Amino acid sequence: MTYTKYSISQLTSGAGLNQKVRVQGWVKSKRESKNVVFISLNDGSTIKNVQIVGDPEKLGETLLRTINSGASISASGILQTSHGKGQTVELAAENIIVDGEADPEIYPLQPKKHSLEFLREIAHFRPRSQTFGAVFRLRHAMIFAVHQFFNDRGFYNIHTPIITGSDAEGAGEMFRVTTLDPLNPPVNEAGGVDYSKDFFGKETNLTVSGQLEVEAFAQSMGLVYTFGPTFRAENSNTSRHLAEFWMIEPEMAWYDNNDNMDLAEAFLKYLVNYALDKCADDLEFLDKRDTQEEQQKPQHQRQELSLIDRLKFVSEHQFERITYTEAIEILKNSKPNKKKKFQFLIDAWGSDLKSEHERYLVEKHFKKPVIIYNYPKDIKAFYMRSNGDNTVAAMDVLFPGIGEVIGGSQREERLEYLQKRMKEMHIPEEELWWYLDLRKFGTITHSGFGLGFERLVQFVTGMNNIRDVIPFPRTPGSAEF
Ligand code: 4AD
Ligand code: MG
User: Fold this and answer.
1) How far apart are the first and last CA of the chain?
2) Atom 6 of ligand 1 has which residue's CA nearest to it?
3) Closest ligand to 353 CA?
4) What per-residue string of b and e applies to 1-30 under the rule 16 or more CB within 10 Å gives b?
5) Residue 377's pLDDT band (boundaries 50, 70, 90)?
6) Whose C-alpha lies nearest to ligand 1, atom 24?
7) Whose C-alpha lies nearest to ligand 1, atom 14?
Protein backbone atom coordinates (compact mmCIF):
# COMPACT_ATOMS: atom_id res chain seq x y z
CA MET A 1 0.00 0.00 0.00
CA THR A 2 1.53 3.26 -0.98
CA TYR A 3 0.63 6.59 0.56
CA THR A 4 1.41 9.90 -1.12
CA LYS A 5 3.09 12.45 1.10
CA TYR A 6 1.46 15.86 1.33
CA SER A 7 2.09 18.95 3.40
CA ILE A 8 -0.75 20.10 5.66
CA SER A 9 -0.96 23.25 3.57
CA GLN A 10 -1.70 21.09 0.53
CA LEU A 11 -4.23 18.94 2.36
CA THR A 12 -6.14 21.85 3.85
CA SER A 13 -6.35 23.53 0.47
CA GLY A 14 -7.98 20.63 -1.30
CA ALA A 15 -5.30 18.11 -2.28
CA GLY A 16 -5.49 14.39 -1.61
CA LEU A 17 -9.20 14.07 -0.85
CA ASN A 18 -10.36 10.44 -0.68
CA GLN A 19 -6.85 9.25 -1.34
CA LYS A 20 -4.23 7.38 0.63
CA VAL A 21 -2.06 10.13 2.09
CA ARG A 22 0.77 10.52 4.56
CA VAL A 23 1.46 13.60 6.67
CA GLN A 24 4.29 14.36 9.05
CA GLY A 25 4.36 16.98 11.74
CA TRP A 26 4.31 17.86 15.42
CA VAL A 27 1.36 17.04 17.64
CA LYS A 28 -0.56 20.08 18.85
CA SER A 29 -3.06 18.24 20.98
CA LYS A 30 -4.72 14.89 21.48
CA ARG A 31 -8.28 14.14 22.63
CA GLU A 32 -9.20 10.63 23.48
CA SER A 33 -12.38 8.79 24.28
CA LYS A 34 -13.19 5.12 24.41
CA ASN A 35 -13.95 4.73 20.73
CA VAL A 36 -12.02 7.47 19.02
CA VAL A 37 -8.87 9.52 19.28
CA PHE A 38 -8.41 12.96 17.68
CA ILE A 39 -4.92 14.29 17.05
CA SER A 40 -4.35 17.82 15.89
CA LEU A 41 -1.16 18.02 13.79
CA ASN A 42 0.90 20.91 12.39
CA ASP A 43 3.94 20.79 10.10
CA GLY A 44 4.69 24.50 9.81
CA SER A 45 3.49 24.76 6.20
CA THR A 46 0.36 26.66 7.30
CA ILE A 47 -1.28 28.06 10.41
CA LYS A 48 -3.97 25.39 9.98
CA ASN A 49 -3.75 22.01 11.67
CA VAL A 50 -4.94 18.77 10.18
CA GLN A 51 -7.12 16.52 12.29
CA ILE A 52 -6.21 12.87 12.50
CA VAL A 53 -8.90 10.44 13.60
CA GLY A 54 -8.04 7.00 14.86
CA ASP A 55 -9.42 3.93 16.52
CA PRO A 56 -7.71 3.66 19.94
CA GLU A 57 -7.97 -0.10 19.90
CA LYS A 58 -6.37 -0.47 16.49
CA LEU A 59 -3.56 1.99 17.22
CA GLY A 60 -2.89 0.46 20.61
CA GLU A 61 -2.49 1.98 24.04
CA THR A 62 1.32 1.78 24.06
CA LEU A 63 1.56 3.92 20.94
CA LEU A 64 -1.14 6.36 22.00
CA ARG A 65 0.64 7.05 25.28
CA THR A 66 3.64 8.39 23.33
CA ILE A 67 1.55 10.76 21.20
CA ASN A 68 1.78 13.96 23.23
CA SER A 69 1.98 17.62 22.42
CA GLY A 70 5.33 18.28 20.74
CA ALA A 71 5.95 14.70 19.56
CA SER A 72 6.78 14.25 15.88
CA ILE A 73 4.69 11.70 14.04
CA SER A 74 4.08 10.28 10.57
CA ALA A 75 0.46 9.37 9.96
CA SER A 76 -0.96 7.48 7.00
CA GLY A 77 -4.54 6.85 6.02
CA ILE A 78 -7.43 8.05 3.90
CA LEU A 79 -8.14 11.76 3.72
CA GLN A 80 -11.88 12.21 4.05
CA THR A 81 -14.43 14.97 4.29
CA SER A 82 -14.90 15.99 7.90
CA HIS A 83 -18.25 16.59 9.46
CA GLY A 84 -16.71 18.02 12.61
CA LYS A 85 -16.50 21.68 13.48
CA GLY A 86 -13.42 23.70 12.47
CA GLN A 87 -12.11 21.63 9.57
CA THR A 88 -13.21 20.42 6.16
CA VAL A 89 -11.01 17.33 5.95
CA GLU A 90 -9.57 14.79 8.33
CA LEU A 91 -7.19 11.90 8.08
CA ALA A 92 -8.61 8.50 9.03
CA ALA A 93 -5.40 6.99 10.36
CA GLU A 94 -4.50 3.46 9.38
CA ASN A 95 -0.99 3.73 10.72
CA ILE A 96 0.91 6.15 12.94
CA ILE A 97 4.64 6.15 13.62
CA VAL A 98 6.01 8.24 16.45
CA ASP A 99 9.29 9.63 15.12
CA GLY A 100 10.30 11.48 18.27
CA GLU A 101 8.56 11.55 21.63
CA ALA A 102 8.15 14.69 23.74
CA ASP A 103 7.85 13.97 27.44
CA PRO A 104 4.91 16.10 28.61
CA GLU A 105 6.48 16.47 32.06
CA ILE A 106 9.47 18.39 30.71
CA TYR A 107 8.65 19.63 27.18
CA PRO A 108 9.05 23.42 27.51
CA LEU A 109 6.38 24.42 24.98
CA GLN A 110 3.24 23.40 26.83
CA PRO A 111 -0.10 23.55 24.98
CA LYS A 112 -1.16 26.83 26.62
CA LYS A 113 -0.54 30.55 26.16
CA HIS A 114 3.05 31.49 26.95
CA SER A 115 4.42 35.00 27.31
CA LEU A 116 6.59 36.31 24.46
CA GLU A 117 9.39 36.83 27.00
CA PHE A 118 9.30 33.15 27.96
CA LEU A 119 9.19 32.09 24.32
CA ARG A 120 12.38 34.11 23.66
CA GLU A 121 14.11 31.86 26.17
CA ILE A 122 13.09 28.84 24.13
CA ALA A 123 13.75 30.38 20.72
CA HIS A 124 14.57 26.91 19.38
CA PHE A 125 10.98 25.81 19.97
CA ARG A 126 9.04 29.01 19.47
CA PRO A 127 8.55 28.57 15.69
CA ARG A 128 6.36 25.59 16.63
CA SER A 129 3.88 28.00 18.21
CA GLN A 130 1.09 29.47 16.11
CA THR A 131 2.21 33.06 16.57
CA PHE A 132 5.81 32.46 15.54
CA GLY A 133 4.85 30.14 12.72
CA ALA A 134 2.74 32.97 11.32
CA VAL A 135 5.48 35.58 11.90
CA PHE A 136 8.16 33.56 10.15
CA ARG A 137 5.97 32.59 7.20
CA LEU A 138 5.24 36.30 6.77
CA ARG A 139 8.92 37.10 7.09
CA HIS A 140 9.60 34.65 4.27
CA ALA A 141 6.85 36.18 2.13
CA MET A 142 8.39 39.62 2.61
CA ILE A 143 11.87 38.38 1.59
CA PHE A 144 10.36 36.89 -1.54
CA ALA A 145 8.37 40.05 -2.29
CA VAL A 146 11.48 42.24 -1.93
CA HIS A 147 13.24 40.27 -4.66
CA GLN A 148 10.11 40.15 -6.80
CA PHE A 149 9.63 43.91 -6.59
CA PHE A 150 13.17 44.71 -7.65
CA ASN A 151 13.45 41.97 -10.26
CA ASP A 152 10.23 43.18 -11.91
CA ARG A 153 11.74 46.67 -12.15
CA GLY A 154 15.07 45.66 -13.65
CA PHE A 155 17.19 45.91 -10.49
CA TYR A 156 20.17 43.61 -9.93
CA ASN A 157 20.80 42.05 -6.53
CA ILE A 158 24.38 42.61 -5.40
CA HIS A 159 26.01 40.86 -2.43
CA THR A 160 28.14 43.41 -0.65
CA PRO A 161 30.80 42.27 1.84
CA ILE A 162 30.04 41.43 5.46
CA ILE A 163 33.59 42.11 6.61
CA THR A 164 34.67 45.64 5.86
CA GLY A 165 37.95 47.50 6.01
CA SER A 166 36.44 50.96 6.32
CA ASP A 167 34.62 52.23 9.38
CA ALA A 168 33.62 55.56 7.84
CA GLU A 169 29.90 55.02 8.31
CA GLY A 170 30.20 53.20 11.61
CA ALA A 171 32.05 55.69 13.80
CA GLY A 172 32.71 53.47 16.79
CA GLU A 173 29.59 51.37 16.59
CA MET A 174 31.19 48.40 14.88
CA PHE A 175 32.09 44.86 15.87
CA ARG A 176 35.77 44.16 15.31
CA VAL A 177 36.80 41.11 13.28
CA THR A 178 40.20 39.77 14.25
CA THR A 179 42.18 36.56 14.58
CA LEU A 180 44.82 38.10 16.86
CA ASP A 181 45.36 36.51 20.26
CA PRO A 182 43.55 38.85 22.69
CA LEU A 183 45.99 38.00 25.49
CA ASN A 184 49.11 38.53 23.46
CA PRO A 185 48.51 40.77 20.44
CA PRO A 186 51.40 42.15 18.36
CA VAL A 187 52.22 45.69 19.43
CA ASN A 188 53.27 48.57 17.18
CA GLU A 189 55.79 51.32 17.89
CA ALA A 190 53.15 53.54 19.46
CA GLY A 191 52.29 50.78 21.95
CA GLY A 192 48.93 49.95 20.36
CA VAL A 193 47.75 46.72 18.79
CA ASP A 194 49.50 46.18 15.44
CA TYR A 195 46.64 45.33 13.12
CA SER A 196 48.97 45.14 10.14
CA LYS A 197 49.76 41.67 11.56
CA ASP A 198 46.07 40.75 11.67
CA PHE A 199 44.38 38.39 9.19
CA PHE A 200 43.56 41.05 6.60
CA GLY A 201 46.65 43.16 7.24
CA LYS A 202 44.49 45.97 8.59
CA GLU A 203 41.69 46.67 11.07
CA THR A 204 38.43 45.08 9.95
CA ASN A 205 34.87 45.14 11.23
CA LEU A 206 31.44 43.70 10.51
CA THR A 207 29.59 45.99 8.14
CA VAL A 208 26.94 48.48 9.29
CA SER A 209 25.65 48.95 5.74
CA GLY A 210 26.39 47.79 2.20
CA GLN A 211 25.65 51.20 0.75
CA LEU A 212 29.12 52.49 -0.09
CA GLU A 213 30.03 49.29 -1.93
CA VAL A 214 26.71 49.01 -3.73
CA GLU A 215 27.14 52.58 -4.99
CA ALA A 216 29.98 51.27 -7.15
CA PHE A 217 27.50 48.89 -8.78
CA ALA A 218 24.84 51.60 -9.27
CA GLN A 219 27.55 53.49 -11.12
CA SER A 220 28.08 50.58 -13.49
CA MET A 221 24.88 48.51 -13.59
CA GLY A 222 22.34 51.28 -13.01
CA LEU A 223 19.64 49.89 -10.72
CA VAL A 224 20.92 47.64 -7.93
CA TYR A 225 20.11 46.56 -4.39
CA THR A 226 21.67 44.71 -1.48
CA PHE A 227 19.79 42.56 0.99
CA GLY A 228 22.06 41.37 3.73
CA PRO A 229 22.87 41.23 7.41
CA THR A 230 24.25 44.34 9.07
CA PHE A 231 25.75 44.78 12.51
CA ARG A 232 25.66 47.65 14.95
CA ALA A 233 27.34 47.66 18.34
CA GLU A 234 25.20 50.48 19.69
CA ASN A 235 23.99 49.81 23.21
CA SER A 236 20.30 50.42 22.53
CA ASN A 237 18.00 48.08 24.37
CA THR A 238 14.77 49.13 22.67
CA SER A 239 11.93 47.29 21.00
CA ARG A 240 13.21 48.53 17.61
CA HIS A 241 16.98 47.85 17.76
CA LEU A 242 18.98 44.72 17.11
CA ALA A 243 22.76 44.31 17.07
CA GLU A 244 22.36 42.08 14.00
CA PHE A 245 19.61 42.96 11.56
CA TRP A 246 18.87 42.68 7.85
CA MET A 247 18.74 45.64 5.55
CA ILE A 248 17.60 46.17 1.98
CA GLU A 249 19.53 48.93 0.25
CA PRO A 250 18.55 49.90 -3.28
CA GLU A 251 20.83 52.34 -5.11
CA MET A 252 19.69 54.03 -8.30
CA ALA A 253 21.66 55.74 -11.04
CA TRP A 254 20.18 59.05 -12.24
CA TYR A 255 17.60 59.20 -9.43
CA ASP A 256 17.27 62.41 -7.46
CA ASN A 257 15.81 62.50 -3.96
CA ASN A 258 12.23 62.88 -5.27
CA ASP A 259 12.62 59.76 -7.40
CA ASN A 260 14.08 58.14 -4.30
CA MET A 261 11.00 58.98 -2.19
CA ASP A 262 8.67 57.80 -4.95
CA LEU A 263 10.45 54.46 -5.10
CA ALA A 264 10.46 54.06 -1.30
CA GLU A 265 6.72 54.69 -1.11
CA ALA A 266 5.93 52.33 -4.01
CA PHE A 267 8.18 49.67 -2.47
CA LEU A 268 6.55 49.77 0.97
CA LYS A 269 3.06 49.70 -0.54
CA TYR A 270 4.02 46.74 -2.71
CA LEU A 271 5.27 44.80 0.32
CA VAL A 272 2.19 45.56 2.38
CA ASN A 273 -0.11 44.59 -0.49
CA TYR A 274 1.83 41.40 -1.03
CA ALA A 275 1.24 40.44 2.60
CA LEU A 276 -2.47 41.24 2.30
CA ASP A 277 -2.79 39.21 -0.92
CA LYS A 278 -0.64 36.20 -0.15
CA CYS A 279 -0.70 35.71 3.61
CA ALA A 280 -4.41 35.96 4.43
CA ASP A 281 -4.55 33.01 6.88
CA ASP A 282 -1.54 34.11 8.89
CA LEU A 283 -2.64 37.75 8.88
CA GLU A 284 -6.09 36.84 10.08
CA PHE A 285 -4.54 35.00 13.01
CA LEU A 286 -2.12 37.85 13.79
CA ASP A 287 -4.92 40.39 13.47
CA LYS A 288 -6.92 38.61 16.20
CA ARG A 289 -3.82 38.30 18.33
CA ASP A 290 -3.03 41.99 17.86
CA THR A 291 -6.57 43.00 18.83
CA GLN A 292 -6.32 40.95 22.03
CA GLU A 293 -2.94 42.51 22.87
CA GLU A 294 -4.25 46.01 22.23
CA GLN A 295 -7.13 45.42 24.62
CA GLN A 296 -4.61 44.80 27.41
CA LYS A 297 -3.23 48.32 26.95
CA PRO A 298 -4.66 51.46 28.54
CA GLN A 299 -7.17 53.18 26.23
CA HIS A 300 -4.92 56.09 25.24
CA GLN A 301 -2.09 53.79 24.13
CA ARG A 302 -4.25 51.60 21.89
CA GLN A 303 -3.91 51.70 18.13
CA GLU A 304 -7.06 52.99 16.50
CA LEU A 305 -7.02 50.45 13.69
CA SER A 306 -6.68 46.67 13.72
CA LEU A 307 -3.59 45.14 12.12
CA ILE A 308 -5.22 44.37 8.76
CA ASP A 309 -6.83 47.81 8.69
CA ARG A 310 -3.45 49.40 9.41
CA LEU A 311 -1.97 47.55 6.43
CA LYS A 312 -4.85 48.58 4.18
CA PHE A 313 -4.53 52.14 5.38
CA VAL A 314 -0.86 52.29 4.37
CA SER A 315 -1.53 50.73 0.99
CA GLU A 316 -4.38 53.12 0.20
CA HIS A 317 -3.09 56.50 1.40
CA GLN A 318 -0.44 58.77 0.02
CA PHE A 319 2.41 59.28 2.45
CA GLU A 320 2.74 62.81 3.79
CA ARG A 321 5.96 64.51 2.64
CA ILE A 322 7.33 67.38 4.72
CA THR A 323 10.70 69.03 5.11
CA TYR A 324 12.63 68.78 8.35
CA THR A 325 12.02 72.51 8.85
CA GLU A 326 8.24 71.99 8.60
CA ALA A 327 8.48 69.04 11.00
CA ILE A 328 10.30 71.17 13.57
CA GLU A 329 7.64 73.89 13.34
CA ILE A 330 4.87 71.36 13.95
CA LEU A 331 6.74 69.78 16.84
CA LYS A 332 7.71 73.09 18.46
CA ASN A 333 4.06 74.09 18.60
CA SER A 334 2.74 70.67 19.57
CA LYS A 335 0.93 70.03 22.84
CA PRO A 336 3.44 67.49 24.24
CA ASN A 337 6.26 69.94 23.54
CA LYS A 338 4.49 72.90 25.17
CA LYS A 339 3.38 70.82 28.14
CA LYS A 340 6.89 69.36 28.40
CA LYS A 341 5.60 65.86 27.87
CA PHE A 342 8.37 64.93 25.42
CA GLN A 343 11.42 63.46 27.08
CA PHE A 344 13.53 65.55 24.67
CA LEU A 345 12.01 68.97 24.09
CA ILE A 346 12.24 70.53 20.66
CA ASP A 347 13.53 74.06 21.09
CA ALA A 348 15.49 74.88 17.98
CA TRP A 349 16.11 74.05 14.36
CA GLY A 350 18.90 71.51 14.24
CA SER A 351 17.79 69.13 16.99
CA ASP A 352 17.78 65.48 16.09
CA LEU A 353 14.34 63.89 15.96
CA LYS A 354 13.85 61.10 18.47
CA SER A 355 11.40 58.27 18.18
CA GLU A 356 8.84 60.11 20.37
CA HIS A 357 8.81 63.02 17.90
CA GLU A 358 8.57 60.80 14.86
CA ARG A 359 5.68 58.90 16.38
CA TYR A 360 3.89 62.09 17.32
CA LEU A 361 4.02 63.30 13.72
CA VAL A 362 2.84 59.97 12.31
CA GLU A 363 0.34 58.82 14.92
CA LYS A 364 -1.10 62.04 16.29
CA HIS A 365 -0.55 64.86 13.81
CA PHE A 366 -0.84 63.41 10.32
CA LYS A 367 -2.22 59.98 11.23
CA LYS A 368 -0.46 58.41 8.27
CA PRO A 369 3.06 57.49 7.13
CA VAL A 370 5.31 60.53 6.82
CA ILE A 371 8.44 61.16 4.79
CA ILE A 372 10.68 63.86 6.23
CA TYR A 373 13.29 65.23 3.83
CA ASN A 374 16.03 67.90 3.70
CA TYR A 375 17.58 67.40 7.13
CA PRO A 376 20.29 69.57 8.73
CA LYS A 377 23.65 68.39 7.45
CA ASP A 378 25.05 68.17 10.98
CA ILE A 379 22.80 65.28 12.01
CA LYS A 380 23.31 63.24 8.83
CA ALA A 381 26.03 61.20 7.14
CA PHE A 382 28.94 62.63 5.12
CA TYR A 383 27.81 61.22 1.78
CA MET A 384 24.46 63.00 1.60
CA ARG A 385 24.12 65.65 -1.10
CA SER A 386 24.36 69.24 0.02
CA ASN A 387 21.34 71.41 -0.82
CA GLY A 388 23.55 74.48 -0.78
CA ASP A 389 22.20 75.70 2.56
CA ASN A 390 22.61 73.97 5.90
CA THR A 391 20.63 70.97 4.74
CA VAL A 392 21.24 67.76 2.81
CA ALA A 393 18.93 65.82 0.49
CA ALA A 394 18.16 63.13 3.06
CA MET A 395 14.83 61.42 3.56
CA ASP A 396 13.42 59.19 6.33
CA VAL A 397 10.16 57.26 6.07
CA LEU A 398 8.25 57.05 9.37
CA PHE A 399 5.58 54.45 10.10
CA PRO A 400 2.91 54.26 12.80
CA GLY A 401 3.92 52.16 15.80
CA ILE A 402 7.48 51.85 14.52
CA GLY A 403 8.99 55.23 13.70
CA GLU A 404 11.78 55.18 11.12
CA VAL A 405 11.57 52.23 8.73
CA ILE A 406 13.63 53.74 5.93
CA GLY A 407 16.57 56.12 5.89
CA GLY A 408 18.10 57.33 2.65
CA SER A 409 19.34 60.22 0.56
CA GLN A 410 20.57 61.57 -2.70
CA ARG A 411 24.34 61.07 -2.71
CA GLU A 412 26.94 63.79 -3.08
CA GLU A 413 28.24 63.20 -6.60
CA ARG A 414 30.45 66.34 -6.75
CA LEU A 415 34.04 65.47 -5.84
CA GLU A 416 34.99 68.78 -4.25
CA TYR A 417 31.83 68.91 -2.08
CA LEU A 418 32.41 65.36 -0.90
CA GLN A 419 36.06 66.01 -0.08
CA LYS A 420 35.16 69.16 1.84
CA ARG A 421 32.52 67.33 3.88
CA MET A 422 34.84 64.43 4.66
CA LYS A 423 37.47 66.86 5.87
CA GLU A 424 34.95 68.62 8.13
CA MET A 425 33.91 65.29 9.57
CA HIS A 426 37.49 64.00 9.98
CA ILE A 427 37.12 61.09 7.59
CA PRO A 428 40.53 60.35 6.05
CA GLU A 429 40.49 60.31 2.24
CA GLU A 430 42.91 57.34 2.14
CA GLU A 431 40.28 55.13 3.68
CA LEU A 432 37.71 55.87 1.00
CA TRP A 433 39.97 56.47 -2.00
CA TRP A 434 37.86 54.15 -4.12
CA TYR A 435 34.63 55.90 -3.10
CA LEU A 436 36.14 59.22 -4.17
CA ASP A 437 37.29 57.61 -7.44
CA LEU A 438 33.63 57.05 -8.29
CA ARG A 439 33.25 60.85 -8.25
CA LYS A 440 36.39 61.37 -10.32
CA PHE A 441 35.44 59.10 -13.19
CA GLY A 442 31.97 59.12 -14.71
CA THR A 443 30.16 60.55 -11.70
CA ILE A 444 26.36 60.75 -11.83
CA THR A 445 23.33 61.91 -9.88
CA HIS A 446 22.26 58.93 -7.76
CA SER A 447 20.20 58.08 -4.70
CA GLY A 448 19.33 55.20 -2.47
CA PHE A 449 17.86 54.16 0.83
CA GLY A 450 17.93 51.43 3.47
CA LEU A 451 14.87 49.58 4.72
CA GLY A 452 15.29 47.93 8.10
CA PHE A 453 13.82 44.53 7.27
CA GLU A 454 12.81 43.58 10.82
CA ARG A 455 11.02 46.90 11.31
CA LEU A 456 9.01 46.17 8.19
CA VAL A 457 8.21 42.67 9.50
CA GLN A 458 7.16 44.24 12.81
CA PHE A 459 4.76 46.46 10.94
CA VAL A 460 3.16 43.70 8.87
CA THR A 461 2.87 41.23 11.75
CA GLY A 462 1.93 43.71 14.48
CA MET A 463 4.65 42.35 16.77
CA ASN A 464 5.65 45.02 19.27
CA ASN A 465 9.17 43.81 19.93
CA ILE A 466 11.78 43.47 17.19
CA ARG A 467 13.20 40.43 19.02
CA ASP A 468 10.05 38.56 18.01
CA VAL A 469 10.44 38.95 14.24
CA ILE A 470 13.98 37.56 13.75
CA PRO A 471 14.67 33.86 14.34
CA PHE A 472 17.46 34.25 16.88
CA PRO A 473 17.82 37.86 18.07
CA ARG A 474 21.18 39.39 18.95
CA THR A 475 20.93 42.25 21.43
CA PRO A 476 23.27 43.67 24.10
CA GLY A 477 24.02 40.88 26.57
CA SER A 478 22.22 38.24 24.56
CA ALA A 479 23.50 35.86 21.88
CA GLU A 480 22.14 32.50 23.04
CA PHE A 481 21.41 29.87 20.38
O1 4AD B 1 19.14 55.02 8.65
P2 4AD B 1 20.20 53.97 8.52
O3 4AD B 1 21.30 53.98 9.50
O4 4AD B 1 20.74 54.12 7.03
C5 4AD B 1 21.80 53.49 6.47
O6 4AD B 1 22.43 52.61 6.97
C7 4AD B 1 22.06 53.93 5.04
N8 4AD B 1 23.37 53.41 4.63
C9 4AD B 1 20.94 53.41 4.18
C10 4AD B 1 21.10 53.80 2.72
O11 4AD B 1 20.88 54.94 2.40
N12 4AD B 1 21.46 52.87 1.87
O13 4AD B 1 19.53 52.53 8.54
C14 4AD B 1 18.51 52.20 7.64
C15 4AD B 1 17.37 51.53 8.33
C16 4AD B 1 16.68 52.38 9.39
O17 4AD B 1 15.74 53.23 8.81
C18 4AD B 1 16.03 51.34 10.27
O19 4AD B 1 14.81 50.89 9.70
C20 4AD B 1 17.02 50.20 10.19
O21 4AD B 1 17.82 50.39 9.05
N22 4AD B 1 17.87 50.11 11.38
C23 4AD B 1 17.79 49.16 12.32
N24 4AD B 1 16.96 48.11 12.45
C25 4AD B 1 17.13 47.32 13.53
N26 4AD B 1 18.08 47.50 14.46
C27 4AD B 1 18.94 48.54 14.37
N28 4AD B 1 19.91 48.69 15.30
C29 4AD B 1 18.81 49.43 13.26
N30 4AD B 1 19.47 50.53 12.86
C31 4AD B 1 18.90 50.93 11.71
MG1 MG C 1 18.52 56.56 9.90
Assistant:
1) 42
2) 209
3) 2
4) eebeebbbbbbbeeebeeeebbbbbbbbeb
5) very high
6) 452
7) 450
Strand partners, 92: 53, 78
pTM of structure? 0.96
Q: Which domains, and CATH codes, for the chain?
A: 4-100 (2.40.50.140), 128-173+208-468 (3.30.930.10)
Q: How far is the CA of 396 from the centre of ligand 2 (A)?
A: 7
Atom index in ligand 1 nearest the CA of residue 402 equals 19
Nearest ligand to the CA atom of 475: 1
Q: In testing the pocket of ligand 1, which one of 247, 373, 406 has its CB within 8 Å of the most ligand atoms?
A: 247
CA distance readout (Å), 183 to 40, 177, 180, 190:
55, 16, 9, 18
Burial class (CB in 10 A: 0-12, 13-18, 19+), 34: exposed
| Number of Cβ atoms within 10 Å of the Cβ of 49 | 21
Convert the pLDDT of each residue in 303-333 to its tens digit: 889 999 999 999 999 999 999 999 999 999 9
- Write the residue with the smallest CA distance to atom 23 of ligand 1: 452
Task: Give the closest ligand to the alpha carbon of residue 218.
Answer: 1
CA 13 and chain centroid, separation: 28
Which tens digit of pLDDT belongs to each residue from 50-109?
Answer: 999 999 999 999 999 999 999 999 999 999 999 888 889 999 999 999 999 999 999 999
Q: Which of 175, 259, 455 to mutate to test the pocket of ligand 1 (most atoms within 8 A of CB)?
A: 455
Residue 250 CA, closest ligand 1 atom number: 12
Ligand 2 centroid to Cα of residue 404, in Å, is 7
Q: Which residues line ligand 1 (CB under 6 A)?
A: 209, 211, 232, 241-242, 245, 247, 249, 404-409, 448-450, 452, 454-455
Cα 230 to Cα 248: distance, rounded to the nearest angstrom: 10
How far apart are the CA of 162 and the centre of ligand 2, in A? 20
Q: List, for residues 100-151, the tens digit of each pLDDT value.
A: 999 999 999 998 899 999 999 999 999 999 999 999 999 999 999 999 999 9
